[in-house]
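Protocol step 4 of 5: obtain the predicted structure for the target chain.
Materials: sequence only (see below). No template structures provided, no constraints applied. The aim of this step is simply to have a reference model before the mutagenesis design in step 5. Sequence pasted as it appears in the construct record:
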Amino acid sequence: MASLDDVLRGATAKLRAAGVENPAREARLLAELVVCRDDPRTLSAGETRHLATFVDRRTRREPFAQIAGVREFWSLDFEVTQDTLIPRPDSETLIECCLDRFEHHPPARILDLGTGSGCLVVTLLVTWTGSTGIGVDVSERACAVAARNARRHGVGDRAWVMCGDWAAALDSTFDLVVVNPPYVPSDELAGLDPEVALHEPGVAIDGGEDGYACYRRIVPRLATLLSNDGKAVVEHGPDQRDGLAVLGGDSGLCVVGEVDDCGGRHRVLVLAHRGP
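Step 4 output (structure tokens):
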């Protein structure tokens, strides 16, 4: 048996040396993944080895959410893997915007482009029990995760997950389209935290030379994807609001709303058909 305090001190030192922020807190959170007993004072040999494995993974800057295999989003737990972007608090701004825009009349049909873990479409379907949704992702493995998350939260019968190239295979219209595409400019990827740059899927982060590569493919399609009164709720980088608005205008859409994230930065734009 090993003293929990001693093991935590050693784990904290390793995490600190690796540059992990809040190493003491991270060490304790990792220990909580291993020990299921209330107020443990000692660790068994097996628990100590298990924790050491987790600490080693974290020192290589693997995100805690990937080690735990789950991340909370909108008070729901979502499975995450190295094949999916980890749900972020900033993206909850997108959910807030959707709920505000459709407060009195929930959308019947929802499309989530670049669904990843499925956190957006699943959260919306959990909230709107009469809606149906489709999540599309280019990664088959991400699609599998999204489908499991839909079943996990009891909306598997109202959520369809498709592997595809954005909306290329779709010919239907939707009342709500949510979009959270890769939007980090390629030359900024190297400056991201190691947890992101080394361990999250580049295909879900890299927005091309100027960060707009995916928007240029998606936004022109929104005009045909949206129903007459439909809305597209699009997440973007803090400096991309104006460029995205121009793309929308060139595609026959207009900006009908925008929302800042919890840090006060431009984060979400709402697009709709331009009126007569």
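Step 4 remarks: Residues 2-60 form one domain. The longest strand covers residues 226-235.
Proceed to step 5.
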